[in-house]
Amino acid sequence: MTAADALIDDLCNLEPIKTWSLIVTLFGDLSDHHITGKELGLLMGHVGIKTEAIRVALHRLRKDGWIVSTKSGREVTYSLSDVGLAETRAAYEDVYRRDVKYPQGWKLLLTKSDYAAPDPAIRIERSLLLVPVEAVLLDGAALGLQADTDHIPDWFSDRIVPSQTLVLAQKLCEIAERPGIGDLSPLSLAAVRLLLLHYWRKIALRNSSWAHISMIPQGPLAQCHHRVTQVMADLPRLDPAAFAN
Amino acid sequence: MTAADALIDDLCNLEPIKTWSLIVTLFGDLSDHHITGKELGLLMGHVGIKTEAIRVALHRLRKDGWIVSTKSGREVTYSLSDVGLAETRAAYEDVYRRDVKYPQGWKLLLTKSDYAAPDPAIRIERSLLLVPVEAVLLDGAALGLQADTDHIPDWFSDRIVPSQTLVLAQKLCEIAERPGIGDLSPLSLAAVRLLLLHYWRKIALRNSSWAHISMIPQGPLAQCHHRVTQVMADLPRLDPAAFAN
Questions:
Q1: Where are the domains of chain B?
Q2: Is there a contact between B110 and A128 if contact means CB atoms under 8 Å apart?
Q3: Among B127, B143, B148, whose Cβ lies nearest the Cβ of A143?
């Protein structure tokens, strides 16, 4: 097994991968948002996804109005629909961002039972919410609390984000730190980028992850954020013209 | 009804008074810790306590080892026992203090269910304690939280101290602020001092009161503390030689 295969293998083994979700990641990172069926099959095949699984996933995504396909002779080209493009753009702001979301940090709120929690709130306990400072409205129904961020115990960290996510982040960060990623073949490089981005995307789309990153800046999520977005910034976006030739 | 009678009447009507508890207050404030049965009856009678109730209370306190009595001819003199004196001294530090107890303030702790709460802790919710900073041990089982003291909602204040206590404190403070207390007859002055001290003592012996005073320094408990201890400092301690002649 080559170093590239080992890298891809380790990434594939981090967590079970849903094919449709991996394709969503792929389309979000494509430099010009479209890819032929052949190119898609090449890249997905390189990370071990079978042709039949790709076919089913593409069918589902097209049915959901998320991608569109055009046929030219025997070649099919897939691209994001307008809906898919709009959703991807919104989501990918969080996925690629190198700074932290909600830059003013997070606050705990002790609330009355009838408190209407603002949207990005994370429930820590029945009456205790974690809320971005920007979203805090101290209207008498909540008491704002500033946590001692120097001494955040592990069990509290686990209430923000499940420990399995923290383990995933740590492993992902370790893989992203391996030397030699820049020296891979274009196809392997694309596969590694796709997989790193896929796992990170799932983490970055949860507000709870950003709360953890803000409150525990030495923690595995913050380190993973730092490292994975660094790799993304250093490497070019997915480009079939680069990896399919 | 004279101004003195009205003052004493209003104090007596604040809350039901337990005779034995009022006698405990009285002994704690006596300048030399002993009083004759006749002097005791005079002062207690002036605040409306019946002879029979005094007799029962004295019997109970003597049986509990809290006071001792000595007889000289037809005159009985009561004084605190060694136990009573030691307990009174410890308690009265808090009752007469003009500064706040636990000067470093109070902190909220979010705790795990198996957290061993330190002694002066006040439970706000199942897993949320209010603890003096001096007593906080951040050993990994608790997360320290600093409350926004600028915006403490009323419902939170009520979780520290029941609202009926806050109402009592407010009324007590209003009475203590009335002009002319210094101009009362020695016996009425002693009665007013005894009653003010009695209600305040019940408040000051609860740690939750000190938490409230620290966290809500503009609140009714803090104002009551300020005013009542000011009156205590301005007036002489209870002295039968002064009020029984």
A1: 3-96+156-237, 106-146
A2: yes
A3: B148
A160 contacts in B (CB within 8 Å)? none
How far is A52 from B162, CA to CA, in rounded Å? 67
Residues 6+ apart with CB under 8 A from A187: A42, A43, A46, A243, A244
* Global ipTM: 0.79
Residue recorded with tokens 């029962």: B56
Q: Which fold has domain A3-101+156-243?
A: Arc Repressor Mutant, subunit A (1.10.10)
Q: What percent of chain A has pLDDT over 90?
A: 79
Q: What is the pLDDT of residues A24-43, one digit of tens each?
A: 999 999 988 889 999 999 99
A143 and B152 within 8 Å at the Cβ level: the answer is: yes
CB nearest A145 (choices: B141, B142, B145):
B145
Q: Flag whether pLDDT at A114 surpasses 80.
A: no
Residue with the two structure tokens 């976006």: A237
User: For residue A75, which of A244, A192, A191 has the smallest C-alpha distance?
Assistant: A244
Given the candidates 1.10.510.10, 2.60.40.10, 1.10.10.10, 2.40.50.140, the CATH classification of the domain at B3-96+156-237 is: 1.10.10.10
Contact check, Cβ <8 Å, A141/B154? no
What does pLDDT average to in each consecutive run of 10 residues of chain B (245 residues)? 89 96 95 91 96 96 95 94 92 94 94 83 92 84 89 91 96 94 92 97 96 95 97 93 89
pLDDT for A129: 94
The residue to which tokens 């055009």 are assigned: A70
Nearest residue of B to residue A141 by CA position? B153
